[in-house]
Each structure stands twice: as structure tokens, then as C-alpha cells.
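Order emerges. As here.
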Amino acid sequence: MGFVREVFEEMEDRDTVCKNSMVLGYGNSERVYVGQHIYHGWMEERNVICLNSLIQGYVKAGDIEEAFVLR
């Protein structure tokens, strides 16, 4: 995710698709807390797609309680 994060940080216009891809990517790499930081800190408009990506990351990491709290 390092190179992908570098590209993401250099983008001038980060739209919802890009941000959701980062949330999903960090969740899939079991670094869901980084994805959560993106979701909570960078999302101007949180949406159900990004929320589902975050929940999926917590489930994959085995943190069912946190996933349940987010729903």
C-alpha cells in the first residue's frame, strides 16, 4: 500500500471513488485503522459504500464488535 498511498497523497482531486479504494485497500491488507482514519478524517460526505468497505475491513481483521458498532 506504500506506493499507492504516495500516489493518493499526490492527487490534486481525490474523489469518493479514490477514497473508498483506499479504505477498502487498507481493510484488505488488515490495516483497517488506517482505513478508518481515511473514512473519518478525509470523507466530506460519508456514504454507505465507504461505510461497507470499512465494516468489511473490521470483519476481515476479526474485529466483529467494531464492525457491529459501525453499522
User: Anything to note?
Assistant: The CA atoms of residues 6 and 22 lie 11 Å apart.
